[in-house]
Design a protein that fits this description.
Length: 167
């Protein structure tokens, strides 16, 4: 069976906070975002930041978990064999097959670069359509859309790189 380091999930979940701290800084994209989002310092200060950060972290853990499934292909390999007779039984024919396969190919595409590639695809083909659709119905500008899509694409790229390399 493939051994996965699931401890990388809570570590990778810190990435959105770190990239958000940088990306939404007024010296980077923060001022542009605040104008495009019609956000004010008063609105930001009126929220419960502890609750916001806590819920954001839990959501980031969920995101890291699914990014792992998208970027670590060895997980998909096992998922197609899970219903085979003897799966999970030491010494069974399928268990021996999986061990042999994993010893030969278990480290293929387990790089930061590969995970970042999948993150870029996720940013452009998941985050962009979702964020753009919401923003269009909220009558937000394309500037607003691109600021947020840029943040999420970079964030998901970094998360994908970390989980693929270290999972």
């Amino acid at each position: 069976m493939i051994e996965i380091n699931y401890w990388i999930i809570p570590i990778a979940a810190l990435i959105p906070m770190i990239t958000g701290f940088i990306w939404y800084n007024p010296k980077v994209m923060g001022t542009i975002w605040m104008q495009a989002a019609e956000m004010t310092d008063e609105k930001i200060k009126s929220g419960n930041m502890i609750l916001t950060m806590g819920v954001s972290y839990v959501l980031a853990c969920m995101l890291a978990f699914i990014i792992m499934g998208l970027s670590v292909h060895q997980l998909a390999f096992q998922s197609i064999l899970i219903n085979e007779v003897g799966f999970g039984e030491e010494g069974s024919e399928i268990s021996i097959f999986i061990q042999d396969f994993m010893s030969k190919y278990g480290q293929n595409f387990r790089t930061f670069k590969h995970g970042a590639f999948h993150g870029a695809i996720g940013g452009l083909f998941f985050a962009f359509p979702i964020l753009a659709t919401n923003a269009l119905f909220e009558a937000k500008s394309w500037k607003y859309i691109w600021v947020n899509v840029g943040y999420w694409t970079i964030t998901i790229m970094l998360m994908g790189g970390v989980v693929c390399q270290f999972a």
